[in-house]
Amino acid sequence: MNQVKKVYVVPHSHWDREWYFTIEDSNVLLCENLLHLMDVLESNEEYTGYVFDGQLSIVEEFLKICPEEEERLKRLIRDKRIFVGPWYTQTDSLLVNKESIIRNLLYGTRIGKAMGHCMEVGYLPDIFGQNAYLPSIFKGFDIEYSILQRGIYTDQLNGDLNFIWKSPDGEKVKANNIFLGYGPGKFLSSQTEYVTEKLLPILKKLSAMNKSTDNLLLPAGGDQVLVREAFPEIIKELNKREEDYEFLLSDYETFMKETWNEEGRFNNEIEGELIAPQKSRIHNTIRSQRYDIKKLNNLVENKILCVLEPLAVIGRSLGLKYPKAWLDNMWKMMFDAHAHDSIAGCNSDDTNRNIIDRLTKVNNIADGLLNILKKQLTYAISKNINKDNILVVFNTKPLAIKEIIESVIFTKEPRFSIETLDGKNIAFDIVNQSYLSGGKQIVVTAEGEKEIELPGYYRSVINMEMNNIPPMGYTTLIIKEEGENKEAILKEKGENTITNKYYEVVFNEGKLILIHKKSGQRIEDFMTFEDAADDGDSYDFSPLKGDEPLIIKDSHLLKVEKGSIAERMVMVHRAVLSKDLEERKTEERTTEFEVLTILELRREEEFIRVKHVVNNNIKDHRLRVLFKTPIINPEYSYADQGFSAIKHSTINPYLKDWRERKFAEAPVPIYSLENFAALSDERSTFALITKGIKEYEALENGQLALTLFRSVGVLGKDDLLWRPGRASGINNKVVYTPDAQMMKKLEFEYAVYFSDERFNPQALFRITEKYIEHYASYQKQNLNTFEERLERFEIPMHKEGLPGNYSLFHVDNDRVFMSTCKLAYEGDGVILRLFNPSDTIESVAIHGDKIKKIVKTNLYEDEKEAVKDRVEIPPKGYVTLKIKE
Predict the structure, then answer these.
(1) Has residue 688 been placed in a domain?
(2) How many CB atoms lie within 10 A of CB 811?
(3) Residue 339 placed within a domain
(4) Contact, 538 vs 714, CB < 8 A?
(5) Predicted local distance difference test score (pLDDT) of residue 743
(6) Cis omega (within 30 of 0) on the bond before 86?
């Protein structure tokens, strides 16, 4: 190695899309800064390059306001003077769906290349922890390198900031840890005082952390910084005065390529999720901050990925237009909500309102597109089978559905029956039924307008048992209001037990008892609630010193309802709590607090549906639900992340001396989950499958804790019990966030799964797939035009009739799962991504009459090789296929 060390100075701006300021504030500043940056680069050829934070959204925002600057900007990007991409926005990879991460990179890399060049580094300067599958995802876009800041324990580095980062599926990228963050060179200067007191100590530290190379990376930027015009001259001056270092004005691509130019130089391998809070804060408990944002995002992601996109693919195969332009726009709005401050919820109230508004808009568009697709298909089916009062159930999975389906039915009479096209009765329960007025209709006559009173009708929410809905297709049912109709309304029973094939739940003397029928295992008092004071801020939960969490034990059974398909138990937990932090400090309690819980068991379902409703009237607290499990002293838990389940240690060994070692925050064993968390031993598995709840903890006593929500009122706060030192974010101004106290009605949904077998990832993913609905339904009727918002309006209809039952394609292995089915980016086929969460190879074939050719692609959707027969999916891996019709 050379004695002289090369210092790669990388000028950059880290651009937060929104934070304590709004996205509009950001965009106004963006236009000023980017115009100035282009002026500086064009006027000084020695300014070789500038990294504009690796996200393309800011380029699109800039060009909306300054379209006349497009060619100028493209030229600078093409010449690698301005580096953009590969992200559309810097997504928080532990809080969004795996497909959202992939789509973010798909749009970022595609738009970046269209602009002239996309940075070939998976750049992660500031997100709060790294998803275990990021190396694999980067490789799927032919990105060989990653530069990241947060999440690594120093002893993992083994003396080298350059290391190999490995995904659970075995894919690897070459990585660099920006150990001192992305701003150590922000104020770079050649002045003697700066060089002596700041720069040389920084370089000495970096040298000590790079035992295998003399190349040092010095990021020189910060949040929303303006380009430092003097950098080229400062570099010259530094080279004149320093003999031990050679300074180069550079970029991340150049640094990584030149540093990794020798094969085998760096052999330290780090695997999986990176969430260490030693050098940089991870904000582990930010996963429960602003639960309303997380829940809404999860709802929209699932609606698009699980229903809208695959249904649009089904519609396209039958002659309907795929709504690609709409979906492109929707995903970009979603990506703005997925940036690390945005989805985390650690923002001003104004910003968080904008995020909710953005997600609500996407949800509304999704509902409208689904309404149109379902209506067009259903009316075409009705035309062909010559039936009017029909219900079409759409299956958006590549396997036939055998599940309980929820639907809404409108009828003139309270009693009705449902049949298949070949006359077989469908079993169903009426969960809720209401009588609605028909209202009045204006009729134009020769004498003028007249009001006509329309007859009333019934709206019924039903659960129906479906045995064989065709894969990636639909089936048609007939609704009959004549003959001997069965009244199937869920009825209240004076009982204290609900049951199905798998479970029995008993309410006895204020406690819930769970009985697993197959094994006979019985868990007494299996669900309780824990309320704790929260002395933290928008970034982190913090216990209040001296405060003990309260276990809410006062519970009352309200009712039990039973039908032929489902049974429900409704109960309430009550407590008197301190109304805010100040009252907690005095140990006074003055405010009544309630949690309403609905437990539901459906026939043949292997899980218990749980719903909580809280009208939150307490400030500065954290509410968790605690489950007793049969797993004694678990060493680790499981949570799904990406395309498999990963292990989390129940006890973090770094926790015992984190203060002495000067960690940025306490390495508490509180973790994120994508959809489920589980405990397991040799004889049983206990799991929770959630809808938008993103934080859990496995306790040493075998309890599994799910954080429902946090309630705090300030963006940043100094010296938290688990996070010493300055406030996160801005620390010289207090930003109050009363909306973050969550003083409103909150609803939580998840499922409980209990098995007498050891942990099986395929079983958990299968249960998750059943719980997160992959279906839709539509009734052709003329009674109600308000159930879906676009129902009243005329739309163009499919000219041809369609068959009553249909399947586009199916897979022949139920041990693999579909994570996406959509139109290809270029529109030249259907992209199907299948994954295998198990530890062994799985083989699968795709069958469909309309399939002409199947080609393997990477995540960028470049075609690689034709599929002749079956496809092998590696352990914990995935394949991306393009289906051509």
Answers:
(1) no
(2) 22
(3) yes
(4) yes
(5) 98
(6) yes
Pairwise CA distance, residues 527 & 569, whole Å: 14
Per-residue buried b or exposed e for 852-870, using 16+ beta carbons within 10 Å of the residue's own CB: eebbebebbbeeeeebeee
CA 133 to chain centre: 14
Task: For CA atoms 531, 532, 534, 540, give the dihedral sign.
Answer: negative
- Residue-wise pLDDT tens digits, 612-670: 999 999 999 999 999 999 999 999 999 999 999 999 999 999 999 999 999 999 999 99
Q: Which domain holds residue 430?
A: 396-482
Spatial strand order in the sheet of 269-271: 121-124, 145-148, 172-177, 162-166, 269-271
Domain CATH code at residue 863: 2.60.40.2220
Same domain, 262 and 293: no
Q: Is residue 771 classed exposed, middle or buried when 0-12, 13-18 and 19+ CB atoms within 10 A define those classes?
A: buried
Query: In whole angstroms, what is the distance from residue 807 CA to residue 291 CA?
Result: 38
| Residues 787, 714 contacting (CB under 8 angstroms) | no
Q: Which two tokens stand for residue 690?
A: 């959630």
26 and 147 both lie in a single domain:
yes
Number of domains present in the structure of the chain: 4
Residues 104 and 185 in one domain: yes
Residue with tokens 């990105």: 143
What local confidence, expressed as pLDDT, does residue 687 receive? 98
- Both 135 and 112 in one domain: the answer is yes
The reply to whether 117 and 30 lie within a common domain is yes
Site of tokens 């303006």: 226
CATH number at residue 364: 1.20.1270.50
Question: Given 464, 482, 500, which residue is the final one in a domain?
Answer: 482
Output the domain CATH number for residue 107: 3.20.110.10
3-state SS, residue 138: helix
Based on the fold, state whether residues 293 and 425 are members of the same structural domain: no
Residue recorded with tokens 């990241």? 148
Would 423 be classed as within a structural domain? yes
- Please give the model's pTM, rounded to 2 decimal places: 0.97
d(CA 857, CA 822): 14
What are 790-818's pLDDT values in tens digits? 998 999 998 889 999 999 999 999 999 99
Mean pLDDT over residues 550-555, rounded? 95
Tokens of 364: 């509304």
Check whether 488 has a pLDDT greater than 80: no
Cβ–Cβ < 8 Å for 77, 114? no
Measured torsion, CA atoms of residues 853, 855, 861, 862, in degrees rounded to the nearest 10: -110
With a CB cutoff of 8 Å and minimum separation 6, the contacts of 830 are: 313, 316, 821, 822, 823, 824, 882, 883, 884, 885
Short-list 648, 657, 747, 744, CA closest to 705 = 648
Residues 107 and 248 in one domain: yes
Q: Could you tell me if residue 96 is inside a domain?
A: yes
For tokens 């891996």, the residue is 877
pLDDT band at 840 (very low <50, low <70, confident <90, very high): very high
Pick from 261, 280, 299: which residue ends a domain? 280
Q: Residue 727 contacts by C-beta under 8 Å, 6 or more apart in sequence?
A: 537, 715, 716, 717, 718
Short-list 28, 20, 16, 22, CA closest to 55: 16
Does 174 lie in the same domain as 35? yes
Instruction: Give me 29's structure tokens.
Output: 């500043």
Residue 484 pLDDT exceeds 70: no
